[in-house]
Amino acid sequence: MVSADPTGPLADQLIRLTRRLHRAQRRHLEPLGITPAQARLLRTVAHCDAPPRMTDLAERLDVVPRAITTLVDGLEAHAAVRRVPDVDNRRVTRIELTGTGQELLIRLRQARREAAEELLAPLTREQRSQLSELLTPLDAPHPS
Question: Looking at residues 107-116, what average pLDDT do you find?
Answer without folding.
Answer: 92
